[in-house]
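Late entry, written up from scratch paper. The run itself happened at the end of the previous shift, but nothing got recorded in the book at the time, so transcribing now.
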Amino acid sequence: MTRRVVVTGVGLVCALGIGTEESWKNLVAGQSGVGMITHFDTTGFDCKIAGEVKNFDPFQWIEKKELKKMGRFIQIALAGADFAVKMAGWKPEHSDLDEVGVYVSSGIGGFDIIEREHIKLMQGGPGRISPFFIPSAIVNLASFASIAGVPNKPAYTASKHAVLGLTRSAALFYAQHKIRINALCPGSVNTAMIHANFAIIPGGESTLNAANPARRMAEPAEIAEGALWLCSARSRYVVGHGLVIDGGQSVQ
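Output as recorded:
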């Protein structure tokens, strides 16, 4: 069966503007979103420019009591999603919610929060760390593409290599402060998202499984167990590591 996917809404919150309409208007006008960095003191930095999201007011989308539970990158993502939904004209009350799904994809974020809570830890001890520290940040999620090439996916492979490289670099710095940073590097996982792809790619599942030494995809619980182990005291001597859970795909 062939399925058609239609994109009915796009939400942009970026350096070019707040909202899809404003961002597109500035893009076609040839405006640049790059400017001098204002979010932190750049003294001592060689680079003093960036594509910052400017004039973003999170209170248009998030209640004050919820704001402290999430990093700015999450706030921006929620705003972007809201713009997309409104452009599509989709309303939950007009849909069968059992047929509705949400996919969220993000490599890493929240370094400002990590640095803030790290300072609290060093100056005041563990008791000073915010209980919202973990919910407001994100686990490093790379993939087996962090350590191997993926045909016809140069951008994806490069970004996943970057996640693992960033993990290792940060791990070297924070190890001296007893903070461990590691990454998960899963292969294909048996999720609804990947099965949605199989629905439009004839023979996709059998081809994918045949290319894996284990002849199957990972189950979500197997990836979760890896994450729990990395977060537990049992891995207390593991630093800057990319835990590969791919059924042997990356070692072929």
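The chain has two domains: 13-99, 139-251.
(Scratch paper discarded after transcription.)
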